[in-house]
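thread: overnight batch results

M.L. [08:02]
morning all. the overnight job finished for the chain we discussed friday. pasting input first so we're all looking at the same thing
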Amino acid sequence: MKLYPLQFQPILKDRIWGGTKLKTYLNKPITSEITGESWEISTVENDVSVIANGFHEGKSLNELINEFPEQVLGIEVFKRFGKQFPLLFKYLDAREDLSIQVHPNDELAAKRHNSFGKTEMWYVMQADDDARLIVGFKEKSSPEEYIQHLENKTLLNILDTKKVKKGDVFFLETGTVHAIGAGTVIAEIQQTSDITYRLYDFDRVDANGNTRELHVDLALDAINYEAVDAQKRYSKLENKSNEVVDCQYFTTNFIPLNGKIDCNKNQNSFTVYMCVDGDFELILNKEKYNYKKGDTVLIPAFLTDFQLNGNASVLEIYIS
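M.L. [08:03]
and the structure it wrote out:
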């Protein structure tokens, strides 16, 4: 069995709101002027990641998991999810505002779409001076109030807007109405799901003059109408794993790396590192693997002892 730190070919997605920062800021191989997303690790149907390095290059992540399920996923992750890879990792470039949307919980998503729900978190990698995000309602709302404002095109009046800067983190439980605002580059960690209910799209049209589909009726019983505090405050102790989010779907730590740290894992879960600034090397069995800002690497669960060395800001994600 030959397992090692895995990188994948980015799955690039053109979006009506996308731009070019994934190339200029994160060095992704984009060719369009409206690339909105780079899916870094995915097993969403028809968008399954392909290994880009080493012995297993060219093989899909699903193929590798089928061969070595426990060794890649981890003992506890395999018990809980079988051979499904339960998370999706992305970078997003919002040149324009994204649509206002909501994601269903596990129960609704399973019933309607045979899918996981979509709990997610955002780490702001870059933000223009006036960049903002929409996260939830300003005050407790109701289906009736929401529909009234939607019909009057005044929905923004009752939604909570947050000015953001680099390093800000938001944790979005299912049901939270949200939108990424223009002028941001985001690292996103979420359940493996591509189920989104679009509530309002600012009456935009695509190159062919078509508006995008809205899902107003589906969203009604998916929305959490309570006010939420989605922003996460976290410590930034150097060369430590500082907990940012710990939920049933994933744990995310922030590592301000300055020098070398030893990592000793158990075999219960894979670990993913997203390099959100700087560069670092991972040293495993005397072999060195190098990563820079915008890189994402999957460490199979049975690789338990290694070192990180460099000057970087790193997100560390696993399932606990």
